Every structure is written in structure tokens, then in C-alpha cells.
């Protein structure tokens, strides 16, 4: 297991963990640190190190998930600064337009989504294309926990403990050809279980599509998540497989993925197709470039209410500049929003 050294931009483990647990974990890990690789990633806890989430409803994880998550323990979170968002908020304040446009619609409607069996197609500019049952697709990957900020373009944010694996590990596995310059993701299209896809009023030309430049996808922060809060993903959060790119606005983090394609041209993404003057391909979190209809300088950290709005300043690249700013050297971020 890699031990990562935190940077100033990190969501510190001590900020989201009871101190006693934090200290005891540090002393156990401390002895092992010297001989292990050190990288510039934010701090994360390993999957068997999960002991913190007070209000989590247990899920019905498939056996392959349980096998990759050997010893999950549960406990309370005592937070100082950046709290992990309560499970209830993370699972009942969602954007998943396939299930409706209100924040509560995904939790209310996504129960109808059948996530088992699930298959993922890998195609395009790859040496090893294929259609995989999810349990086979997952075989090569070790699961990790990553505690990331999630900043929506609508100016609300959360802190979520994801469980997943780096997109770079998938790329290594499928062997992109020299023509591959971008990675394109596609969500399930199933109007029977997805009422938003049946609606005559939907602006979206289904399926929902997202994409990254290949070097962005290779960045160690980009992960494919299969779980959160120590359990598998709830349907409303994008079960059984979603993208998480924490330095970008949340709409890049596409849910319920069924197709991953390596392509030579920049893919046409969903929100860009709907309103390219409001939502760009890059969608990097940037407090200095406002959305045409609202400021991006600040955000509401959930839980947030009328009497306690919990507003804070938005950070460049959502606080992950040290890890990702070099991807954009020489790029005009005002034009490439
Ligand atoms: N993926 C699909 N397929 N459909 C969607 O409507 N919404 C996006 C993103 N992924 C969306 C999606 C938006 S706008 C955000 S902010 C995040 O999911 C929200 O993720 P969460 O509901 O897990 O917080």
C-alpha cells in the first residue's frame, strides 16, 4: 500500500477523523512509512481503514465488492474543519437527470435502476477492447478510499469518501493506441427505469456523455468509483460505476457508466452540447471565472440552510492546484472554461 504525503491543499485526515483514531492509525502506519513510496497525492485511507461514517445505511454489496473491501469498521466522525458530508445529504441532494431534475428525485426514483448484472464496454483506440461483466471488469483493480471535495457548478459542495481505483490503472490495462487522445464515458440508456429519459421536456440528448483529455485521465486524482462511505454506491450516486474528477465541476463526474471509449477527437459532452457558453469541456473549478448567471467565487458547503448557509470561498482547482495545475500550463483558462 502506498502512503501519500498530504499537501497544503488537502482535505486533511485529521480534519475528518476522530483524533484518537487518527493518532492510532498514524502510529501503526508510521513504522511502515520509511520503506514505502511517497507521492504528491492527497491523503487517503485504505479500504480496510474505514471507521468513521455515523449515519450510513448499509447497502447490498455484490460479492466482488465485499471481497475487495476486507475489514470495514464503522464509527462516528468528529470533525474540526472540513467535515465529511453526512451520508444523508450526499445521498438525498443529488443531480442525476435521468431520474428527474429536483435534488430529491434521484433518491426517490433511482431504486428502479437494475445494477446487477451490469456490463461495461471498452472500445475505440485500445489494444484490448471488450465487453465485460462488471465483476470481471473490476478484477485487475485494488480498491482505495479517497476523501475528496465535490464542487458542483451550481455553487454547492460536499466532502465525500469515495471507494474506487485510478482511471490510470484502467488505461494501463486496456492499452490505448497512439491515436488515443481523449477518453469518453457514456451513461446507461434505459428509459424504462430512468423517468428523465422518458420525459418529453428533457433538454438532454441521451445518453449522458462526458470526457477527459488523456493526460487528465492519467492524473492520479481521477478515479472510477464503485463505492462511498465504506459501502457500494447508492443508485442515486451513480451505481455501480462512476467517474470522480475532484478538481472539475461535478457534472464531469458521470454516473452509471456503461461505455468507455478511447478516441482521437475531443468528445462532445452533454452540458457543452446544451449550453456551450455556460459549460465548457474543461470545467475546472475556478473562482475567478464566473458562470454567466452566478459567481463561482464562493460555494455553499452542505449541509447548508437558511440560518446556517455554511458559505466558504471556492479554491482554484477545488483545492487541488498542486496536483493538477501543471496539466494546464499555457492554456487560457478564461477561454477554456
Ligand atoms: N451523471 C449522469 N449520468 N447524469 C447526471 O445528471 N449529474 C452530474 C454528475 N454526474 C449527472 C451525472 C452533476 S451536475 C453533478 S453535480 C454530480 O453528478 C452530482 O453527483 P452526486 O449526486 O453524487 O453528488
TrEMBL record:
EC nos: 1.8.5.-
Catalysis performed (reactions): L-methionyl-[protein] + a quinone + H2O = L-methionyl-(S)-S-oxide-[protein] + a quinol; L-methionyl-[protein] + a quinone + H2O = L-methionyl-(R)-S-oxide-[protein] + a quinol
MF GO annotations: metal ion binding; molybdopterin cofactor binding; oxidoreductase activity, acting on a sulfur group of donors, quinone or similar compound as acceptor
Domain of life: Bacteria
Job description of the protein: Part of the MsrPQ system that repairs oxidized periplasmic proteins containing methionine sulfoxide residues (Met-O), using respiratory chain electrons. Thus protects these proteins from oxidative-stress damage caused by reactive species of oxygen and chlorine generated by the host defense mechanisms. MsrPQ is essential for the maintenance of envelope integrity under bleach stress, rescuing a wide series of structurally unrelated periplasmic proteins from methionine oxidation.
UniProt: Mo-molybdopterin binding residues: 94, 97-98, 152, 187, 237, 242, 253-255
Entry-linked SUPFAM superfamilies: Oxidoreductase molybdopterin-binding domain
Enzyme class, spelled out: oxidoreductase
Name by which UniProt lists this protein: Protein-methionine-sulfoxide reductase catalytic subunit MsrP
Cofactor(s) this protein cannot do without: Mo-molybdopterin
GO biological process terms on file: protein repair
InterPro entries recorded: MsrP (IPR022867), OxRdtase_Mopterin-bd_dom (IPR000572), OxRdtase_Mopterin-bd_sf (IPR036374), TAT_signal (IPR006311)
Domain Oxidoreductase molybdopterin-binding: 114-271
Keywords attached to this entry: Metal-binding, Molybdenum, Oxidoreductase, Signal
Subunit structure as annotated in this protein's UniProt entry: Heterodimer of a catalytic subunit (MsrP) and a heme-binding subunit (MsrQ).
Protein family (similarity comment): Belongs to the MsrP family.
Modifications the protein undergoes after translation, according to the UniProt entry: Predicted to be exported by the Tat system. The position of the signal peptide cleavage has not been experimentally proven.
PANTHER family: PROTEIN-METHIONINE-SULFOXIDE REDUCTASE, PROTEIN-METHIONINE-SULFOXIDE REDUCTASE CATALYTIC SUBUNIT MSRP
Cofactor: record remark: Binds 1 Mo-molybdopterin (Mo-MPT) cofactor per subunit.
Amino acid at each position: 500500500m502506498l502512503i501519500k504525503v498530504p499537501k497544503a491543499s488537502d482535505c486533511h485526515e485529521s480534519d475528518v477523523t476522530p483524533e484518537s483514531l487518527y493518532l492510532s492509525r498514524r502510529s501503526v502506519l508510521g513504522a511502515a512509512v520509511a520503506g514505502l513510496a511517497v507521492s504528491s497525492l492527497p491523503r487517503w485511507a485504505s479500504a480496510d481503514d474505514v471507521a468513521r461514517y455515523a449515519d450510513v445505511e448499509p447497502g447490498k454489496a455484490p460479492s466482488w465488492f465485499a471481497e475487495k473491501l476486507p475489514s470495514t469498521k464503522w464509527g462516528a466522525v468528529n470533525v474540526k474543519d472540513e467535515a465529511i458530508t453526512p451520508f444523508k445529504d450526499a445521498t438525498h441532494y443529488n443531480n442525476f437527470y435521468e431520474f428527474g431534475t429536483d435534488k430529491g428525485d434521484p433518491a426517490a426514483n433511482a431504486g428502479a435502476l437494475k445494477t446487477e448484472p451490469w456490463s461495461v464496454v471498452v472500445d475505440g483506440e485500445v489494444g484490448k477492447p471488450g465487453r465485460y461483466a462488471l465483476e470481471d471488469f473490476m478484477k485487475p483493480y485494488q480498491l482505495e478510499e479517497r476523501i475528496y471535495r465535490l464542487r458542483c457548478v451550481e455553487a454547492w459542495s460536499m466532502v465525500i469518501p469515495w471507494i474506487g481505483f485510478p482511471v490510470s490503472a484502467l488505461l494501463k490495462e486496456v492499452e490505448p493506441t497512439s491515436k488515443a487522445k481523449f477518453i469518453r464515458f457514456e451513461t446507461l440508456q434505459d428509459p424504462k427505469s430512468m423517468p428523465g429519459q422518458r420525459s418529453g421536456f428533457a433538454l438532454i440528448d441521451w445518453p449522458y456523455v462526458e470526457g477527459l483529455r488523456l493526460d487528465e485521465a492519467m492524473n492520479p486524482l481521477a478515479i472510477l468509483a464503485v463505492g462511498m462511505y465504506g459501502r457500494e454506491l447508492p443508485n442515486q450516486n451513480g451505481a455501480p460505476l462512476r467517474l470522480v474528477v475532484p478538481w472539475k465541476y461535478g457534472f464531469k463526474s458521470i454516473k452509471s457508466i456503461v461505455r468507455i471509449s478511447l478516441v482521437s477527437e475531443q468528445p462532445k459532452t452533454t452540458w457543452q452540447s446544451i449550453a456551450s457558453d455556460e459549460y465548457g469541456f474543461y470545467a475546472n473549478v475556478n473562482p475567478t471565472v464566473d458562470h454567466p448567471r452566478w459567481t463561482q467565487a464562493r460555494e455553499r458547503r452542505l449541509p447548508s440552510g437558511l440560518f446556517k448557509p455554511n458559505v466558504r470561498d471556492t479554491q482554484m482547482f477545488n483545492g487541488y492546484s498542486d496536483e493538477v495545475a501543471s496539466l494546464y500550463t499555457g492554456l487560457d483558462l478564461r477561454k477554456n472554461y
